[in-house]
Amino acid sequence: MRKEIRVFAPATVSNVGCGFDVMGFALDTPGDEIVLRTTQRSGITITKITGDDGKLTLDPEKNTAGVPIIEMCREFGIKCGIEMEIHKKMPFGSGLGSSAASAVGATFALNHLLELNLSNKELLRFAQAGEMIASGSEHADNVAPCLYGGFILIRGYKPVDIVTLSSPENLFCTVIHPHIEISTKESRKLLPESIPVNDAIAQWGNCAALVAGLLTGDYELIGRSIEDHFAEPVRGKFIPQYAQIKEAALKSGALGCNISGSGPSVFALSSDLETAKKVGAAMKSQLDKIELASDIYISGINRKGPKIIELI
Amino acid sequence: MRKEIRVFAPATVSNVGCGFDVMGFALDTPGDEIVLRTTQRSGITITKITGDDGKLTLDPEKNTAGVPIIEMCREFGIKCGIEMEIHKKMPFGSGLGSSAASAVGATFALNHLLELNLSNKELLRFAQAGEMIASGSEHADNVAPCLYGGFILIRGYKPVDIVTLSSPENLFCTVIHPHIEISTKESRKLLPESIPVNDAIAQWGNCAALVAGLLTGDYELIGRSIEDHFAEPVRGKFIPQYAQIKEAALKSGALGCNISGSGPSVFALSSDLETAKKVGAAMKSQLDKIELASDIYISGINRKGPKIIELI
């Protein structure tokens, strides 16, 4: 039996403007690292968390990476002990699927460490249980792209119906993470409970068009479709300089720009790396103006999901 | 100059379950025929309407096929007289885009008769003006598929953004038209003005998935996506035996089944002609039970839009 595994699980951009709760895609960078070890002593222990400023709990039953491991061990009758280290290498409360990355990383790691040979579809269920702890809802628009890689559509939730979407090769993502924190759980509470019909029609027109743009490689259509009539009007207000960041991204040649997940991170898509970098500088300059610190990530689309860094 | 043209313009299925106001596709059969003639005497005259049981007006300013001709003549400074015959060869108030077929037929016919060389994008605007007369709204989910053929997505309306969608070759449509009439204008008034968020999310998940299914030729996904959380719960009640018709279609092997436009016609998609026929018989038997007369149409997907029957 293998003794130790270290995996990387990617950050993800959910919603993608129009696809609230149903769409997301994975990034090459940043992401979390999870280490799992089998031990003689039974039970599941989180031995170490780094990069969290002491904010995450070591109690596996309350930890987004712990819960999937507990559930997998219970369901598959796993008797050996499991030790876990969580290395947060991305900001949390940032709208980049930090909790999903930890949940998926743990799930993926256990699958390989114990050679369980579970499919992504089976793994998804456990990762969603972890996401539930963090966000209060079992939405899969971060965990699914984190696990499958690429662009993902969740057609429906009863049962979960995952559709993998191809996307054009030269698609690059710029993410700006302003150094403020927004809780997904709190953020969801601010959204309205119903949507005016005309806004809803615009939203599903864009959702459908974004899929068409991705599958046919129509960059302009992808750009036009990244519009949000539902969450952006509410969430945009909580992101300092949001309108200016978006305008700067589009002026610098981004195809489209919107809020990543529940924010405060903002993403933009571009059709070449040079533009993606230019867009990043333009976005950052808007936060520099108000002296708010921020990080910029420039990334291709991660088409593989999590990966094994080391397996001993 | 050409003197006379006769064209066919196809029936269309709009909404396609999930895509209220944004999706539609064209049928090979049924459809309307429009005849246009240039005359010495100036002005626009409707000389004949057949197949309408006397229900349509000969006044071109109030007729869905007359209005586009008036607007085109005005915009392009057309001085010659135009005589029009409208041959309704499909039921109206049926949810099969009858008004759109007449409006598109007239628009398409004038373009060819006078060799105006207008693009579909330009023609669409005039056809929409005709649709406005019939339905009270300029929605394009019948006129656009009627004009372009195939499956059409209208991403948005400001400005109209048409996306043509490829679809798998072996897709067949069964339509049942129960002999009752529903006014689109009245029917729209019954719909709620807002949508609960969870229903809206399900709707845009399905819309996006339907596009994915069409573009990748995934018949099962097409079937699963033909779901409606918005209009069907209201409109289904006005269609006799609707639940039974739908159940019978699905049991007979249809991929999906839902209301065509605002009804009362019901459409089903199948992946082969034999199944489409079987589905038709099963649907009809549900209306036979209550002794309500109905017509069945079995058709491929019309991928070309209107066509010229005769040009003299």
Mean pLDDT of chain A: 94
* Biggest interface and residues each: A-B, 40 and 40 residues
Name the beta content range of chain A.
25-35%
**Number of helical segments with 4 or more residues of chain A:** 10
Do you know the CATH topology of the largest domain in chain A?
Answer: Ribosomal Protein S5, domain 2
User: Quaternary status of these chains?
Assistant: homodimer
The CATH first-level class of the largest domain in chain A comes to: Alpha Beta
Counting structural domains of chain A, the number is 2
Number of strands of chain A: 12
Helix content class of chain A: 25-40%
- SSE topology string of chain A: EEEHEHHHEEEHEHHHHEEHEE
**Main β sheet profile of chain A:** 7 strands, mixed
Q: What is the CA–CA distance across the termini of chain A?
A: 9 Å
Q: Which runs of chain A of at least 5 residues are low in confidence (pLDDT < 50)? A: none
What's the Cα radius of gyration of chain A?
19 Å
Shape of chain A: globular
